Amino acid sequence: MSFTPIRGYDNYIFANMQLGMLQEQGINCHLKDEMTVTIDPLLSPALGGMKLMVNNSQLERAEQILEDAENEWVKTVPCPECGQTQLQKIVETTEFPGFWGKVKSLLINGQENRVNKYYSCLNCKKTFNEIM
Ligand SMILES: [Zn+2]
Description:
Layout: E1 3-9, H1 12-24, E2 29-32, H2 34-39, H3 44-47, E3 50-55, H4 59-75, E4 87-95, H5 98-109, E5 113-121, E6 127-128
Bound molecules: zinc ion.
Zinc ion binds next to loops.
């Protein structure tokens, strides 16, 4: 049985929240590198933090559950700028060209492509990296 990382975390509580959510839905998953991160947070960036590992046969379903949860959650968060609950999640993927570009990205981001995620407000048009 093989597993694929679908999310990376540097926040222990958030990682376990998402893990629990997937397990409730019958997804076979676990966190990797959790111990190392908990013991020594300084090592965390080098390891890319905690990885949420999901059984390959359930990847699509797991991704869907996390997406839905994130989208539902974003709808309840007021914009830090104007206070309206009109935030939208934007995801941009940057592909690194060539072998060494991919290796470098793997070391830095823990994955071959850089995923740029941010939130945009439909009302005031401001964008935010974090809204928690
Ligand atoms: Zn706004």
